[in-house]
Amino acid sequence: MKIAVLGAGNGGQALAGYLSLKGFPVALFNRSEERISYIKKKKGIQLCGLIDEFVPVDTITTDMKEAVTGAGLIMVVVPAQAHRFMARKCAPYLSEGQIIVLNPGRTGGAMEFRNTLLQCGMKKRIYLAEAQTFLFVSRAFDKMVRISGIKNSVPVAALPSCDTDKVVSVLHRVHESFEKAKNVLETSLGNIGAIFHPSTMLFNIGRIESNREFSYYYEGITPRIARFLERVDNERQLIARGLKINTPSACQWLKKVYSARGNSLYELIQDNGKYRGVGSPTSLLHRYILEDIPTGLVPMSSIGHHLGIPTSVIDHVVGICSQLYGTDFRKIGRTVDSL
Q: How many CA atoms lie within 13 A of 148 on its CB side?
């Protein structure tokens, strides 16, 4: 089965290398030549960390038609704010029966991707799904890609959910960690990145702006910051319950996904060895804000308001970041109306 990987960032490179290592014919697409020029020159990807091997990649391209034509599985691995772009870009070249998986969808990814395909006039029968999180903990640096962790559990749901069994059966050929979720509301409201990323970056913004490197999870999340993250997470869980969705708390998620041990969020993060080596952002223009607020906290807040569930902690984070960045994240973010 040919697999197309759309996006050659940290995750896309790691996934393309891993899939190639497993023997799949892989087409790695990136919209700009700059990021993939070195990979094209070497005709492959150097993995390190858990897997230390140079892996040839069949196709490395900026041509979407070349990437997706003949692919049985299309893995979209881009920041969630690029989902609309990828949907518009690939729509003309999709064929009947192809499976598209957003890795991850964040909050509302599959719905936004579907809506964009429909706006492009796409009428072919495809299978569209979103993962609740990304399979790897990975970083691209110095012309290598480090995979420092593989998650034990990656829930996946298709839209509509009657397609989930088919999608997960194919994903099991990729990795056994993929598992069936109830529906895309469950995967969307299981978006733990929106809990860990924006607030942690906000509370460490002085260190980031002054270029003082630190371990993002181990040093960036202190006991008091961890307690704040738990308050953000409590609101996420209230919203999920308002939609009759069962979703694990951030603490339960760390125990299941990483086998972490501890009695509090702080203890669990400190115990999670798979966060070792994850450094801090080097720029304020980072996906931890630019992705996780408009495609994470904003849609959660919007759903909460729609249901009459208070989201004051989430709203404060969105409001402060909007003022700091001079961007109306509510205006550009996913909402009940836009989805």
A: 16
Q: Return the beta strands (E) in the chain as ranges.
A: 3-6, 26-29, 44-49, 53-56, 59-61, 73-76, 99-102, 127-131, 136-141, 144-150, 154-158, 178-180
Angle at CA 213, nearest 5°, toward 210 and 214? 125
Beta strands 44-49 and 53-56: pairing type? antiparallel
pTM tops 0.85, yes or no:
yes
Cβ contact 83:116 at 8 Å: yes
At 257-301, the pLDDT tens digits run 999 999 999 999 999 998 987 899 999 999 999 999 999 999 999
- Say which residue the tokens 């593989």 belong to: 150
Q: What are phi and psi of 189, to 5 degrees?
A: -90, 0
Whole-number Å distance between alpha carbons of 165 and 195: 28
Active site residues: 197, 292
| Residue linked to tokens 């920041």 | 79
